[in-house]
Amino acid sequence: xxxxxxxxxxxxxxxxxxxxxxxxxxxxxxxxxxxxxxxxxxxxxxxxxxxxxxxxxxxxxxxxxxxxxxxxxxxxxxxxxxxxxxxxxxxxxxxxxxxxxxxxxxxxxxxxxxxxxxxxxxxxxxxxxxxxxxxxxxxxxxxxxxxxxxxxxxxxxxxxxxxxxxxxxxxxxxxxxxxxxxxxxxxxxxxxxxxxxxxxxxxxxxxxxxxxxxxxxxxxxxxxx
Length: 225
Known about the structure:
The protein is mainly alpha-helical. The protein has two domains: 1-47, Arc Repressor Mutant, subunit A (Orthogonal Bundle), CATH 1.10.10; 49-225, no CATH class. It has nine helices and no strands. Helix 1 (3-21) crosses helix 2 (28-34), helix 4 packs across helix 5 and helix 4 packs parallel to helix 7 (108-129). The longest helix is centred in the middle third of the chain and has 24 residues, at 135-158. Residues 188-225 have low confidence and may be disordered.
């Protein structure tokens, strides 16, 4: 079993346990035992639960980014497809992700970590879709896309349909509103190269409180890139 296969197996077992036991009682050693994996290797690959979440983020981003550069369509269309592929990963681990989202409001440090990493994840998706995501405007776009993602996750939490139609409708509405925000989604051609390698993996973001309507991008970044 290579590292990727090992990580996938442990992540699956850990999120199954998370759904059953909750975040505070999650045991990585127990998850490794559930999956029949080496405890020594699990300790090396997943020294703590933060690493588990970071690797889950990379695991969620992988299908979203696969083939993104070659896809046809507008920036908005590409982002819709990528974010729905990310949702598919959450859906595959639904019970565990819902348990994590319930825990985050009571874990401020965890919320900050995931929020920061999620902005970086949104930058990856933007660049893969053909929208520059560096500099002050890039940070603005990344925060705007994060708002879109969080709105979509909120809809997904309530969506009990097999085809996730309510989730798709929420994502489409949020992207439509974001697209009309001045300077947020450029009508740019697809990039000819893959986005640069990130310095660290990013997790799937937790869902904080959301506004009563689909989000719009922020009018100014808080900090320069």
